[in-house]
Structures are given as structure tokens and as C-alpha cells.
């Protein structure tokens, strides 16, 4: 019997280990450069251990998009939407939600399933809209942009619930003699949460990048309906720099109007036409450049020492924190013959992630303290009943359990950290250059189209892909 | 780590119960594919989800076609007018195949024998190419006959979604218009409204 239990136990541990190491966060984030990218993408696609996780499909979808596989990227996004839809439509009393609540109350923050934060739920639709747009389906892209706004409603309701829950946890923690009103000094994110870019954000789920893109896509999909106006106003309210994203070609930059000459007919002299007010031939076109760069901060569980029971005891509490963003760019310049542009950074994922953490921190802190207190009480009872060894074993079991759970707590790590957007005019057939840090990429415009949407996926400095769609 | 594993871990450690991992999450017995396939009534009300579905498509086409055929511009026309059916704009929160709506309406209208249809703008190039293969010259007059319609039909599908803790309410509005392309005058307009409400169950997995 003991032998059987050991085998089952070992198998369970192996399964946990395999699940955690199939393509862990560090491996994924360090395997994105050009020589490794194909292998990383195929390993991630083949990984079946995390397919019921929201973040898995989002990570996969971003990499597929960066590889130009827009259709498969849509399918992956749809999988993540299904997971989120199921979560949003869950029964009022759901066994899974209760299990998750118990896990996060008694075991670890990592025992919760991750269903994304407001900014991730917004951006998954924004990035999917780009998939539709790149396939020439601007109507489908505008559907995604509307879904993006719809999705925010549930997040707001969920946030209200969290605020109520946090107040209850705070009361509980304070009753047990713990001060949860200030950020622990050992917490690595303390300074980051007070950063100016975080303070400036209006909220943690609406980003000016998505609304600006929504406005542009609506105007392409329904040129006569002027549906993009509201989105644009919202984007400007969120960040006044949005207006810098739109640049028109000066009239002087247009080619000079030439007089028509009658065709030469055999035996007759060519005569110029009588001077008439001629309409200039429109040769300019609109170009939208979207640059998605780098990878967002990756969530992790940080363990810090915290005083409990009015400072009589210290316990290790676990709080969510972030590994910093990677592979991002700092400067973008777009040059044409007549223009030199510096598109604004409208998507600042790191700031949104930190803002969300800041908004939720005191709730998380209260929860972590209640969790640590519960663990301390359990360990003490085990010690009282079974001696020091029993107490040690109880602590060990809880620590091993929480470490295993923490390693699986992941967010959308492949979400772009920055989004730059520029809509400008240029002449048909012209070549323009995009400079990103020290990398320079050129693009020649088509000659017979009204506009072109260019998507630059900057995964790492040596792994950049440029796709375009003309309309 | 999967959600299931996390829950198992939590349950195991918190409730101190032994290895409950026997309950697999997937792989419900699919013995033979054919045993799970049944033919259904294509016109039966479909209520799988609150999304725009086959019942909505059918009822929309039915209502709007009937209304259109009753308009005097078609019912009292001396000869069946030439109509071009434009794309119906999808302004909803779902990826609705609006071509399915226009196709269904076109079929119903054609079956009535009261209108003639010109090729879609999207298909016009293919029709022209076909003509070029079969005739040596396509005159402007002939081209004009291909492109000039007496009326144009356009439309939009819109939706409003609202939800609270208990219910989700989705309202669809499919509107169509008959337009005189020469004057731009709207000669007929009608709409089909659909409302779907889903309630959250109070307890579940």
C-alpha cells in the first residue's frame, strides 16, 4: 500500500514538474531571437500541458502573429476568449471559483487561475483586430475593437467585487494585529509603483493605443459612417500625445500639376490644350504604421518577510510582482522624402501592469497576511499536537505546495510592451524608412491603392517582421 | 500548471484528502463518431448560445423579404426591377457572416420572381472576365446594362449587449433599405429586431 502511494505520489510530482518545465517563463523569454524563434514557436504550439490556461493561448497568439500566421493567431486568440467567456459566465456559486478562492486563501497566490487583468483583456482584442486587418478584413477588425470595449464592462464589475473583498480581508488582517496599510519596504516593486508613468495613467484597463487603432480601423472599414470619432476623442483624453500620431503631407509636397497635351495625330502638329483649371491628380495615400515591440513584464510571486500579530512574529508572505519587460525599443523614427516623424508610444504595457498591481496591492497584501496567519496557526497546531517535527512537516508541506503553485502562475508574457502608432500621408510608390533603436527597415508603397496598413512585429533586435495590407 | 492540477493540489493540501486525481478532465467516451451525429430540423429554434444563429438568420430573411416584396416599388412594378444587393455592414460585437443574410434574402426574392438581380460589385469583375472570354468586344452599352440597377439594397446589423451578475441581454437590429441609385432617395426601409436573454445558473462547476 505504502509502495503504491509512493508511486502515485512520485507520478503526481513528476506531472507537476513536467507541467512547470514544458516551456517555463524564463526559457520562453530567452528563446525569442531569430535563430531560436521557429523552434520556440513549434515547442509552444506542441505543448499540451497548459492548454487550459488563458495566458498560454495569448502567448501563442502573439508569437503566431509575429510570424505572420494571422489565421492561426486568430484561432489561438479565440481559444483564450473561450476560456475567459467561460469564466465570465460561470455560475454564481462555482466550485472552481470556490477551489481557487480556498487555494489562494490557504496555500498561495499562485493557486489562483490567471484570467488576465483589464489591460490584457483589452489588448487581446486589439491584437486580434490587427490579425483581421492584416488579412484585409477591416470589418472583422472593427468587430474586435467593439468586443474590446464590451470586455471592459466585466472587468469593472470584477474590480468592484475585488475592492469589497479586499476591504473584508483588510479588516480581518487588522483584527489579527497586522498593519496592511503601507507597502512593505522589502517589496521589490515599491519604487516602480510610484513611477511617473504609472501615476499619469487614468485607469488600468483603457489604453490610448487601442482607441486610436479602433478609430483608424473604423474609418477604413466604414469610410462614410464616421464611426471612429468617438474612439479618437477617448484616445486623446487618455493621452494628448495621440494627436501627434496623425500627420498630413503639406500641400507643397504634392507633385506639381502638369498641363495636358493633346496626343500627336499623324500629319498634324501637336497643339497645347486651351488653358483650363485642372484638378491636381491625387497621388498621395494614407499610411498607418503600427509597431508592436518587446515583451511585457512577466508576473512572479515574491516572498517577503512580514511582521504578524503586532510584530510578535514574522512570516513569509507572497505577493505578486513582475520581472521587467524585455527586448523593447526606446526610439522610433519614420522618414519619408518629405517627413520625419517620431510616433508616440501609445501603448505602455509595463505602466499598465504596474498600475493594476498598485490598484490591487493592498487587497493582495491583506490576503497574503491572512494566508500567512492561517499557515502559522496550522503549523502551530501541528506542532502542539505532533511535536516540533509535526510543525516542521506541516510548514514544509505548505511551502512545497505553494512553490509548486507559484511556478504555474503566469500572465501574458508575450504581450508587446510598447505600441507605436503613426498615420501619415506619403506619395504612392514612395519608399519610407522605419528606424527602431539601431535597426533600420525600408518599405516601398504600392502605386494604385488608397492606403496601406503596415504592422511591424519587433520581437527582439534580430527578429523583426514587417507585414502590410493595402486597401 | 493546469487549472485542474492547481485545484487538485489545493484540495489535497487544504482538505488533507488523498490523491483525488482520478477524475480526468477530458476524453469523454467517443466510441463511434456516427453514434453522436443526428439530423435536426433546419428550421427549429436554435438556442445553444445567445450569439446570432441560424434561427435569427432565417427569421430575419423571412421578415425583411416579405416586407420588401410588399412595397409598391416592387409589388406594382410593370416589370421586375433590376436590383443590386450590397453588403450588409456588421456593426455588432460578433463575427457574423452577413453574406449569409444577403444570400438568403436574394434567394427568397429571386424565388418570388418579382425582382431581377445584378451581380454583386465584388463578383462583377468575374462576370466581366467571363464576358470577355465569350464575346470579342464588350461595348459600353452592354457594360452599362451589367452595372445599372433600378434599385440598390443596403443594410446594417447592430447589437447592444448588457449584462449584470444574473442575466445577459443581447439585442440585435437588422435594418435594410431600398435606395434609388439615381436620386439617392430611400424608397423602403424595414428592420428585424431580436432580443435574447440568458440567465446565469446559481450553482455549477
Report what the structure shows.
The complex is a heterodimer of chains A (471) and B (205). Chain A is an alpha+beta fold and 471 residues long. Chain A has one domain. Chain A contains 13 helices and 13 strands. In chain A, the strands form three sheets. In chain A, strands 2, 3, 8, 9, 12 and 13 form a six-stranded mixed beta sheet that branches. In chain A, strands 7-6-10-11 form a four-stranded antiparallel beta sheet, with no helix packed on it. In chain A, a hairpin with a 2-residue loop joins strand 12 and strand 13. In chain A, helix 5 packs antiparallel against helix 7 and helix 8 packs across helix 13. The longest helix of chain A is centred in the last third of the chain and has 59 residues. With 205 residues, chain B is of the alpha/beta class. Chain B has one domain: ABC-type transport auxiliary lipoprotein component (Rossmann fold, 3-Layer(aba) Sandwich). Chain B is built from six helices and six strands, in the order αααβαβααββββ. In chain B, strands 2-1-3-4-5 form a five-stranded mixed beta sheet, with helices on one face. In chain B, helix 2 crosses helix 4. The longest helix of chain B is centred in the first third of the chain and has 17 residues. The radius of gyration of chain B is 26 Å and the shape is elongated. About 8% of the residues of chain B have low confidence. Chains A and B meet through helix 1, strand 1, helix 6, helix 8 and helix 13 of A and helix 1, strand 1 and strand 6 of B. Strand 1 of chain A pairs parallel with strand 6 of chain B, so a sheet runs across the interface.
